[in-house]
UniProtKB/TrEMBL annotation:
<dbReference type="InterPro" id="IPR041166">
    <property type="entry name" value="Rubredoxin_2"/>
</dbReference>
<keyword id="KW-1003">Cell membrane</keyword>
<feature type="binding site">
    <location>
        <position position="364"/>
    </location>
    <ligand>
        <name>Fe cation</name>
    </ligand>
</feature>
<keyword id="KW-0997">Cell inner membrane</keyword>
<feature type="domain" description="LapB rubredoxin metal binding">
    <location>
        <begin position="345"/>
        <end position="369"/>
    </location>
</feature>
<comment type="function">
    <text>Modulates cellular lipopolysaccharide (LPS) levels by regulating LpxC, which is involved in lipid A biosynthesis. May act by modulating the proteolytic activity of FtsH towards LpxC. May also coordinate assembly of proteins involved in LPS synthesis at the plasma membrane.</text>
</comment>
<keyword id="KW-1133">Transmembrane helix</keyword>
<keyword id="KW-0472">Membrane</keyword>
<keyword id="KW-0802">TPR repeat</keyword>
<dbReference type="Pfam" id="PF18073">
    <property type="entry name" value="Zn_ribbon_LapB"/>
</dbReference>
<dbReference type="GO" id="GO:0005506">
    <property type="term" value="F:iron ion binding"/>
</dbReference>
<keyword id="KW-0479">Metal-binding</keyword>
<dbReference type="GO" id="GO:0046890">
    <property type="term" value="P:regulation of lipid biosynthetic process"/>
</dbReference>
<dbReference type="InterPro" id="IPR030865">
    <property type="entry name" value="LapB"/>
</dbReference>
<keyword id="KW-0408">Iron</keyword>
<keyword id="KW-0812">Transmembrane</keyword>
<protein>
    <recommendedName>
        <fullName>Lipopolysaccharide assembly protein B</fullName>
    </recommendedName>
</protein>
Length: 378
């Protein structure tokens, strides 16, 4: 009995000492790990600032191993993977974050947004769409809607693009009226009936009164239906409402005038447009409607008095007689070749040039980036 009591007296202090030593070892190990994690983190930041991404990734991986519960390290690592084009690794990092049960609501939304960006960069549009849809109601909702809009434009899903544009317009983020009008015009081009196409175009005119495209496409639709009088009324109205689109309105206006015989009305409209802003396209439309060849040449001279133009000079010279008339065709061909680049349209966003006007640049995909004026007039 006494021996058992003596062992108990000796055992309690020994157990206490062993427990104290174990706690000291745990604390020491914890301090070592805590020192190692910040060192690896700051080493990674240093590599990143020096644009040494490979070394930065290695440092962040080491930091994550030392402290796997730190979400900031995961975000930094995932963003680095995405910037390097290692989208599969970036997806794994952000999906691992989302699988954690201790993640705060703000960090969960941030991880969901980062995952959506990973899918977008990787070109996995269906998975990106699903990830972006889950951000509804979060602080990233506006960014998610803009990304969805880009996806639907890229896939030419105009009904869904229209839906997103309406939501963004309702949020008051910016004026999406012109973009919405383009989506409605694209749907009108795909419509199965003329009635549906006309309804969509008139809706586009309502949501974006300052846009010329809906009226121009409505006039073309009316002309195809044989209603040239209504087309002329539509074109006359848009010429007055959107004067900057004069160059695009001029040719179809002249076509409708010739079809209906209302030449004087069209000439008055075109002359008013030319007085406000001289344009090569308006000039060519006036020349087409002018019955007198002498007056047509005077139109070129009047334009040259206001605006120096190699294109207009070339057109005027085509009807003149030269001293050495046998050289005229050779000279005319040379001038026509020289002015070809001047008659193109140029994107104001990326500089892409084309022989025809585009509502959406085929180079940079920007909307309304092509002025309705030729290169020579810019």
């Amino acid at each position: 009995m006494e021996s058992e009591f003596s062992w108990l007296l000796w055992g309690l202090p020994i157990a206490f000492v062993l427990g104290w030593m174990a706690s000291r070892l745990d604390l020491r190990q914890l301090r070592i790990e805590n020192r190692q994690a910040p060192k690896a983190y700051f080493r990674g930041l240093n590599f990143l600032l020096n644009e040494q991404q490979d070394q930065a990734i290695d440092a962040f991986i080491e930091a994550v191993r030392n402290d796997p519960d730190t979400s900031e390290l995961h975000f930094a690592l995932g963003n680095l993977f995405r910037r390097r084009g290692e989208y599969e690794r970036a997806v794994r990092v952000h999906e691992h974050l989302l699988s954690r049960g201790d993640l705060t609501r703000a960090d969960r939304q941030r991880a969901q947004h980062a995952l959506a960006l990973d899918f977008l960069k990787a070109g996995l549009l269906d998975r990106a769409e699903d990830a972006l849809r889950k951000l509804e109601g979060s602080i990233y909702e506006s960014q998610a809607l803009l990304a969805l809009l880009a996806i639907y434009e890229r896939t030419r899903d105009w009904p869904r693009a229209t839906e997103i544009a309406r939501r963004l317009q309702a949020r008051g983020e910016a004026d999406f009226g012109p973009r919405l009008a383009h989506y409605l015009c694209e749907q009108a081009a795909q419509a199965t009936s003329a009635e549906e196409a006309e309804r969509l175009l008139r809706e586009a005119m309502h949501v974006a009164p300052s846009s010329a495209r809906p009226a121009l496409e409505l006039a073309a639709l009316l002309r195809r239906a044989g209603d040239d009088h209504a087309a002329l009324d539509c074109l006359t109205e848009v010429a007055q409402r959107v004067p900057r689109a004069a160059g695009l309105v001029a040719k179809p206006l002249a076509d409708s005038a010739l079809a209906t015989g209302q030449l004087e009305r069209a000439v008055r409209t075109l002359m008013d447009m030319q007085q406000v802003a001289p344009s090569l396209d308006v000039l060519e439309a006036l020349v087409r409607l002018e019955q007198d060849s002498e007056k047509s040449r005077e139109l070129y001279v009047r334009h040259l008095e206001r605006e120096p133009s190699l294109v207009a000079a070339t057109r005027w010279l085509a009807g003149e007689r030269l001293e050495h008339e046998e050289l005229h065709p050779l000279l005319q061909r040379s001038l026509e070749q020289a002015v070809k680049p001047l008659t193109r349209y140029r994107c104001a966003a990326c500089g892409f040039e084309a022989n025809q006007h585009f509502w959406q640049c085929p180079g940079c995909q920007a909307w309304d980036s092509y002025p309705a004026r030729r290169v020579e007039e810019l």
